[in-house]
Every structure is written in structure tokens, then in C-alpha cells.
Amino acid sequence: MGECYINGIANISAQPTTNADEFLEEIISHNTSIFKAHDPNYKEFIKPAAMRRMSKSVKMGVTAASIALNNSGVEMPDAIITGTGMGCKQDSEKFLEKILYDDEQFLTPTLFIQSTHNTVGGQVALGLGCKAYNLTYVQGAASFESSLIDAQLMLLEEPEKNILVGGIDEVAKNSTLLHKLDGQIKEDDIDVINLLDSKTGGTVHSEGATFMMLGSKKTDTSCAKIVDIETISKASSEEAEKHIETFLGRQGISIKDVDAVILGNNGDVDYDHYYRNLQTSLFSETEQLCYKHLIGDYPVASSFGFWLGCKIFEKNTVPAILKVNSTTAKKYDTVLLYNQYLGKNHSIALLQRC
């Protein structure tokens, strides 16, 4: 894969992460199994008249994209690629409710148009006046990584381009509760900070958005280099370990060359063994970091790990709230990310300081 640098990044999550000068100094405690993102002042980035018609995912996406663009110094991207697991659920629900309550009469198309998965990418493009390549990936928990792989391939063919890549998912009133019915979300409310110690099935659900500007050349704003990304549809915990070893070997390095690993543990007793197996074997001597006890889980939650990696490189330190073992790296030059959901949609990524 060719050179790929993150030249600007922004994140909106259940923690206050939009201030570029701060790195998880302030932690918001959540005591419920479903919670929303911490909202920045959207009025600073979106005109009030336009914001009235936007769902939460669109507001988060447009704002995060705007911040990432500002951080990169790029005014107009050459492509916009987004990933989402569930799309604009809030507008989908409103449209379906209109069908029921109005007996399928006098329906306006607005909510239907705004309920599609590619709404965020479209709204970002409309706001910028960008008529370039615009695509949305809906690949479950690997949606964000699929978008990044597409961007990498584009940069390989056209290295002069600047590509805006994002991941967005939102909480909705009714459809989110369906995940509770099928056991994906914990039945009882819990103190989310203690999520990783949970002994029950399911996880906690939230929402968020991450956008980054990618380019093939290192700039003054570059915060990390994406060395490689891989996704695996389905694997056992033993197979996942072999995939990671092969992935690292392809880069000509071993786990000893990795300074820290960022894992997607989400407190689901039925599937966290994927991470525990690695924590006690392959990663046993590596600094281990987790984040879903801060931001919850959602299809593109793994995008938060990329923001974490960039902040670790920038600050050259790790907040104690992220650490889950006693090992501390001497430096932070190479970070490995691994995530899976329900034993599927495994993703592996390698970041390096640039």
C-alpha cells in the first residue's frame, strides 16, 4: 500500500473530544446502557436555518468534517468517503411514524430523502460545494475501515489527492431499543466506567463521528501515518491472533516493535474473549489501551481508536483512564488497533508517528 498520512482529524463522542488542546482531562460519567454524544456548539459550524432540518448524525458529521478540514488546511477535498453502520436512524423513524400516523396519506419526501445512509456524505458535499467522488460504506463494524481502504486505494492511483474520510452513527429512540431486545445492549443500566469488568452479555450503546483528511504526502499538520489496514469477515479468537501476526509480519515487524495496542473491549462477556485471549498471549508484554468504557459502542466506534492514536502521538502520553494493564511503553511511535463485533467484522490497523 502507498503512503497515507492523516493530515487533520476531528472527533465527536460521548466525551468532550472536540477541543484540540485537551486529551481526556475531563471525563463524563454515564450510568445508563444507552447514551448520547457530548454536543459541541454546532452553531459555530452550521447555519441555524440549515441545522433545524438536520438529524443528530448529520450535525455531528458536518461539524467533525469541518473541524478536520480546518485542522488540515485543505479547503476543498478531492473525494468524500464515509462509513456508517446504521445511517440516519432518527429520520428513518420519523418517516415510518408519518406513514403510520397519517395512514400513508400526504407524505412529504423530505424525511425519506434524509434517512438514507449516504445523507451525511451528501450534506458535507453540499455544504462545501464539492462535486467530487462521494461514496458511503455500510459494512457493519468495519464500515469506517472499509472507507479508509477505499481512500488508500485512491491515493495509490492518484497520490496528489486529498481525501476526506469519516465514520458516523447515531442513537435513535426506537430502533436502538431493538438491539436491546436481541441482546446486543445490556438489559440493566450500569456505571459505564466499569464496563470492562462486566460479567453479562451485551454492551452499552452510544453515538459519535470521526472525520480525517488523508493525503499521500506528509505536511506540517500530519499527525499519523496509516501503514496498513485489514478487515476479516469472521474468525475465531485463535484465527484472529494468527491474522494479527501475519498482518505485522507483512510490515516486517513483530509485536515487540509495537509500543501500544488499542483494543475494542466492550464488556460483552460472550465476545470479549477475543480481546482477553490476545491480552494474555500476543499482547501480554505490550501496553494495552481500551476506550469503549468512555464512549460506548456503535458500528463505527473503532474510528475513535484512530483519533486516540493521533492524540497519543501528539501528546506523547496516555491518560490513565485508558490503561488496562501495568505495562507502560518507553515511547509512542507505533500503535496497533484491533476491533471486532459479535465475532465478526474484525479490523486491524497500524499507525506510526510521522
From TrEMBL:
Transmembrane segments: none annotated. InterPro entries: Ketoacyl_synth_N, Thiolase-like. Residues 42-170 form the Beta-ketoacyl synthase-like N-terminal domain. This is Beta-ketoacyl synthase chain length factor. It comes from Aquimarina litoralis. The lineage of its organism: Bacteria, Pseudomonadati, Bacteroidota, Flavobacteriia, Flavobacteriales.
